[in-house]
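User: Hey, quick favor. My workstation is busy. Could you predict this chain's structure for me?
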Amino acid sequence: MTLELFIASLALLISVMQLWKTYFYKSKPFFTIGTLTEQIYPIKSASEEWYVCSFHMPISISNHGAQLLIIEKLRLKLVYQDIRLPS
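Assistant: No problem, here it is.
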């Protein structure tokens, strides 16, 4: 009788743990960020010349939890420390 009770209790404990991990576990975002690359494209017209700067950075977001994860905003901030702007 005690062996059956032990096995049943162990099965119940494992079931509760699996239910927690698959349904109730809090969402945990995991970010993977690749290398930032920059390209500058020269644009020429008949009398003017200017440049267009393009940035590319791969971002991967995954959820290690079981609950829904919604990312509403993602901000990328670029800082140029070596550029002096006129006052």
